[in-house]
TrEMBL record:
GO molecular function: voltage-gated potassium channel activity
Pfam family, one: cNMP_binding
Protein name: HCN1 protein
Gene: Hcn1
Alphabetical list of CDD domains matching this protein: CAP_ED
Signal peptide residue numbers: none
Length: 186
């Protein structure tokens, strides 16, 4: 699979610095293992897929206060909708003013929230962000930039709403945190 990436970079005559950045991305994204996880999971039945997703995300769940006291069925429903993503240091994960289509959960890494007033807050393992505009259907209220390599899980607005429709009490938990965050960022 990486051979195709190399051919693509050659064909487009990408500069060495950009090629290195792409190479580093693949190193961190796949950690030497390249296989089609989505395809593998799609072939499994629901109970087995849910068991694997819960196992793969156990560290994320363990570090997240949001999941600690939640209904295990809610946690499984949420985890089954997550998509793994990697961001490199300096990458903007979200930009202030953009329409929000996803929220993110940090499995590992450090990201900085940059507000209008140039206050910078740090987010790390177990933190989540981007939920405000999924709740308000508004625009991003701040930018978030990766300080280190960040291994994240994203949740699309459609999947977010689908899960919260099933678990309305959890919508209130997200709303409470969102209100507090809006107060803090001014």
């Amino acid at each position: 699979q990486y051979k195709q990436v190399e051919q693509y970079m050659s064909f487009h005559k990408l500069p060495a610095e950009m090629r290195q950045k792409i190479h580093d991305y693949y190193e961190h994204r796949y950690q030497g293992k390249i296989f089609d996880e989505e395809n593998i999971l799609n072939e499994l039945n629901d109970p087995l897929r849910e068991e694997i997703v819960n196992f793969n995300c156990r560290k994320l769940v363990a570090t997240m206060p949001l999941f600690a006291n939640a209904d295990p069925n809610f946690v499984t429903a949420m985890l089954s909708k997550l998509r793994f993503e990697v961001f490199q240091p300096g990458d903007y994960i979200i930009r202030e003013g953009a329409v929000g289509k996803k929220m993110y959960f940090i499995q590992h890494g450090v990201a900085g929230v940059i507000t209008k007033s140039n206050k910078e807050l740090k987010l790390t393992d177990g933190s989540y962000f981007g939920e405000i505009c999924l709740l308000t259907k508004g625009r991003r209220t701040a930018s978030v930039r990766a300080d280190t390599y960040c291994r994240l899980y994203s949740l699309s607005v459609d999947n977010f709403n689908e899960v919260l429709e099933e678990y309305p009490m959890m919508r209130r938990a997200f709303e409470t945190v969102a209100i507090d965050r809006l107060d803090r960022i001014g």
